[in-house]
Amino acid sequence: MHPETPNNSIKDSVLASIQSHSIIMKPKWHFLLRTALVIVGAVLTALALVYVVSFTVFMLRQNGALYAPTFGLAGVEELLRSLPWIFVLLALVFLTIVEILVRQYSFAYKRPLVVSVAGLTLLVCVSGFLVDKTHLHEEAYRQATMGKLPFAGALYRVHSFPPMRNAVIGLIKTKTATGFTLEGHRHETFVVTLTPETIVNDQDVTINDLVMVFGSRINENIQAVGVQELPEAPPWIEHDIHTLRYNITE
Amino acid sequence: MLYYMKDMESLKKTDEAIAQEAQNGKAEAFGILVERFEQPLKRYARRFLFGYTEAEDVVQDVFLKAYANLQSFDTARSFSAWIYRIAHNEFINAIKKKGKEPIPFFDPDTLFPHPVEPTRTDDDIQKAELKDILDSCLEKLDPKYREPLVLYFYEDMDYQTIAEIMHIPTSTVGVRINRGKQLLRKAYIHLEKSYAPRNA
User: Fold this and answer.
1) Which of B23, B38, B110 sits opposite A11 (nearest CB)?
2) CATH match for B108-195 among 3.65.10.10, 1.10.10.10, 3.10.300.10, 3.40.190.10
3) Closest residue in A to B108 (Cα–Cα)
4) Which ipTM did the prediction report?
């Protein structure tokens, strides 16, 4: 309970507390420092979030899962199965932290939570894809395999990007009446059959092209559900593909 | 005479200008702000903290907290909204401390966008009518509906200012006020029935 006098009780009591120094005005730097810490915290967490998203996109591109949804429902299912859930979870944790940190500012709390979170998610996804386009992760992967990346190196080495369960990456060796033969990065040869239902994302695929074939596989035979031409070899099979390409050309 | 003139001078000053003087170390300037906001905050406390005996103590804590954090106030913004925000936090803490009424950590009303209802011409008549009902049915309402209704009906604040004080979207303020009004009407009908003579 606070001491009370009948008239002007609150004013007198507050002024008495100020004069007796039992209540002290916090200095301006205290608030500036707190604001700075919140901003730095939010920016660092957002950067970490963008890194995790771009690394996830990189992983999915390396194992071909990113292209899978273009092959229909089975492809979407395959993408979901291939998602690195630990990174998805980490991204959600970072997203929650950023949202909590920015929620005290009017640009966030004046909007419904769904709008604010959706805006943030969109911003992070676009940034993640843009970072992925810079080939930052490809370079980091090369550095990591050479042992030149001390901190994040293990992250790239541990996740060795195995191809999706129903996908094979390789070079088109020969064209056949029903499709083509494919030389996989481990020098294994597959016979790929294309059906009218097969989705070929680049109709001009020809010999020596690097492709990812998605479909049901029995031994060396693949009934293709989809074929996706890859613009460049993922770094983890870069060397194998280079050797294969050289052999086919020779 | 000099004291009287000084008093008249301070009357002309805006809350923000006085707050700036207090920020520069004039404790008496803060006293003027206490004088200006004591009654409105007591009124807000009495209605929002309905049935809480220590409502006036909480108002005093609001002023002490406001003084301690005065340097965080941006004089380009409204002092009234700033001090009401502090009061809102203190009142919510008081309710939580008592544990009599539930204050949910998360409110689904803040999740999705809602259309804001435009103000109607019959609003003033309704406002006067609902203000009377509000007086008799305050305790029947959840704090989350009671607070925006008190700010809207008794403090004459618009949705934007209430949103600023409660840190919720403006559309959510509209939703809570409309739902609050419906709950008030229901509570009032129930109250009228319970007072009506049994064999009338």
Assistant:
1) B38
2) 1.10.10.10
3) A113
4) 0.78
* Tokens of residue B70, six digits: 């005065």
DSSP string, B68-103: HTGGG--TTS-HHHHHHHHHHHHHHHHHHHHTSS--
Interface residue of B10, B36, B60 to substitute, partner A, most A CBs within 10 Å: B60
For A125-167, the pLDDT digits (tens) are 999 889 988 888 888 888 888 888 777 777 777 665 666 777 8
Q: Does the beta carbon of B15 lie under 8 angstroms from any beta carbon of chain A?
A: no
CA distance A40 to chain B (A): 18
A114 touches chain B (CB under 8 A): yes
Matching residue, tokens 């008799």: B136
Q: Please, is A29 exposed, middle or buried when counting C-beta atoms within 10 Å of its C-beta (0-12, 13-18, 19+)?
A: exposed
Is some CB atom of chain A closer than 8 A to the CB atom of B63?
A: yes
Of the partner residues B54, B63, B110, the one whose CB lies closest to the CB of residue A14: B63
CB atoms within 10 A of CB A169: 24
CATH 1.10.1740.10 fits B2-98, yes or no: yes
- Every domain of chain B with CATH number 1.10.1740.10 lies at 2-98
Cα three-residue angle B153-B156-B162, rounded to 5 degrees = 90
